[in-house]
Design goal:
Length: 257
């Protein structure tokens, strides 16, 4: 692995970490960068999850007071998240690079659509779930099964997980944005940590490349605290949408063109 490639991965992690902190969507930067560095698709996906994990953990710690307000839900959330994350990671380990390459464009398309319309979906669900009515109506079992599906997605493909989790929490009746962000980060960490353990157990993480992106993401995440007041969130979000959409088109052309 040459120094230029490692520098490129660090830079991708730097930008991705900043974007994750400012608007979300950093995986749209880091995952393609790992592919560009020559990491096979399945390993690139697993390595991206590994690179994103520290940001989830540090973010959850920062929101711990808000998370603690829902301590009655944490055991269930963590158990379901661990189960779903493991099953998603297990499926990824059983998919070949050729098979995964074919579905990457569709996963990217899904993640981009969720990113674009996530806020509207959250508002729509929150308006129909105030005061926990959505949780009571749908039932605890239905919500647990839905969380299992969301966690499964996160274990299989990390991009877009945070926005999907926010939509889930809105459906579950939460409406405090800080509490939702805290629980989103906690669940992302839970899903990702079990997935990373599963990937590591089978040697499915490109440690050198993934660690270069991880180091950049950590620095970028902290640096975003400074840039947060200088760069409008709407500008960052617009960039992610345009970049993610263009990247998705490129993946479709490469795969099916």
């Amino acid at each position: 692995m040459d120094e230029l490639t490692l520098l490129m991965l660090f830079a991708a992690g730097l930008v991705g970490g900043m974007i994750n902190s400012l608007a979300g969507g950093g995986s749209f930067i880091m995952f393609p960068a790992l592919l560009l560095a020559g990491v096979p698709p399945v390993l690139a996906n697993a390595s991206n999850t590994y690179a994103c994990l520290p940001g989830y953990v540090s973010g959850a710690l920062g929101y711990w007071r808000q998370i603690a307000a829902h301590k009655d839900k944490l055991v269930l959330f963590c158990i379901v998240g661990l189960a779903g994350g493991y099953l998603g990671a297990e499926l990824l380990m059983r998919v070949t690079d050729a098979q995964f390459s074919v579905i990457i464009p569709w996963l990217m398309l899904f993640a981009v659509v969720i990113y674009i319309f996530g806020a509207r979906i959250n508002r729509f669900l929150a308006a129909r779930s105030r005061g926990g009515r959505g949780a009571r109506t749908a039932g605890a079992i239905s919500l647990a099964l839905l969380l299992l599906v969301v966690s499964f997605y996160g274990g299989f493909f990390n991009a877009g997980l945070g926005i999907i989790l926010l939509a889930y929490l809105a459906l579950a009746g939460l409406n405090d944005v800080h509490e939702m962000n805290g629980l989103k980060l906690l669940m992302s960490a839970v899903v990702s940590v079990v997935a990373v353990i599963r990937f590591a157990a089978t040697g499915s993480i490109a440690w050198v490349e993934g660690s270069a992106a991880l180091a950049g993401a950590v620095v970028g995440g902290f640096g975003a605290a400074y840039f947060a007041t200088l760069i409008p969130a709407k500008f960052i979000r617009g960039f992610v949408i345009v970049y993610g959409a263009g990247l998705t088109v490129w993946f479709f052309l490469v795969t099916y063109g």
